[in-house]
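Encode chain A's predicted structure.
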Amino acid sequence: MSLPALVPTNYVLTSGANSALTWTNALTVNSVNHSSLVGSTISATRLQTSSLQTSSLQTTGLSLSTFQTSTIGVGTSSPQFALDVRGGAYLSSIITPVDQIAQGAYLAPSPANSSIITAWIQKTVQTNCASTIGVGPFWSSSPTGSAYGTVAGGSGVSDFYGGVLVPDGRVIFVPQVATSIGIFNPFTNAYGTAAMTPTPSTSAYSGGSLLPDGRVVFAPRNATTVGIFNPATNVYTTATGAAPGSSAYFGSVILPDGRGVFVPNNATTIGIFTPTTNTYSVVTPSSPVLPGNSAYIGGVLLPDGRVIFVPCNATTIGIFNPASGTNSGYSVVTPSSPALSGNNAYAGGVLLPDGRVVFVPSGAGVIGIFDPASGTNGGYSTVAGVTISGSNTFRGGVLLPDGRVVFVPCVGTTIGIYNPAISGASSYTTTGTAPGGGAYQGGVLLPDGRVVFVPAASATVGLYLSNTPAPKEFCLHPFFNKF
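Encoded structure for chain A:
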């Protein structure tokens, strides 16, 4: 049946009408009871139907089995959402779409996935914040006077350089001078070791990362083989292929395809470890060439899949793009104002929630910031009003669950805290009393919110208490779980 253009406001369709009701003009009635309705606009105080197709619906009472519509408002004459219910709603079942932001934790870093991944990091951090980055919830404010503590572990002779969280919750310390692999169990606060056979050379490894298959890869510093540790069996092995030694690499980062990339320090090649074949290989850029001479220490994986090499003695910021065939994927940014100082400037970097990278100050005296999306001065800047004295002050940093960054104290005798902020000015403070003297090199965030400081010249494992837990996938992610 068809309705005339003007419909009386008291028009009532009886339940006996079985055919579909179709119209092109507005339908305004007090009560509609029909098996099937197809129309452009429906306004009713009470609606009962088994099937409904409409572009706009306003009603105070609604009972139906199927909706096909673009805008539905219940209890409102001006719907603002696809389904806008002003008042109580009862649903016997609901099907929700996939949360794309939550999927960011599991997507491979790439230009296409970059925005979703960045949104996931921001959502994870902001979920833990009362309002802005660096402002934690009222119930988990960092303690004053007791934020730092220690447990026994290590010999205190430059034992380890960097740590890696593994899926079973333990933290693996990467052996530097130590002749065994350090293992910290956060559930018992106990330190132990795993044997290394054969024993590698002095200052064998510096930095490591978690492979997709659950093993940990050690970046070869003076060792001429890549070290691999399997936490499921506590067995140490080495990869096929000869590394250059002579302080070749400092730091390891997992690439989007699952391979490990070793950050070039003295090496003039970029080291690559392929876990599916347990082999070591290199790429050799030619223009520009890698600078060597303690060029970079530590790397940071970006959401778009590139890796940033953190400048130590280099006066350039290194960028490795595994998806590029140009110059083996290696390029540089050369800031001019301010310029990079070289001279042991930075040691390690941390990905911030907004996609920038903070360079951890070692000898630079300033906090460095690299924004890969900015063309101003190559994206490099420093934090205004902050001066940090000393050399090897910090080595490595950790993104806290509230968005702040902890700088791990090496020679420094306090723990650095950088708050990048998302509104207003960033800030830098210090807390605690660290041992100094090269105590720690690298840090690891635990799901319980603590940060483990990896013992180097300290005979203790350092622990910084943030009081805010973090999702396990956040702690294990290649963006953060590395040095």
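Residues 3-18 have pLDDT under 50 and may be disordered.
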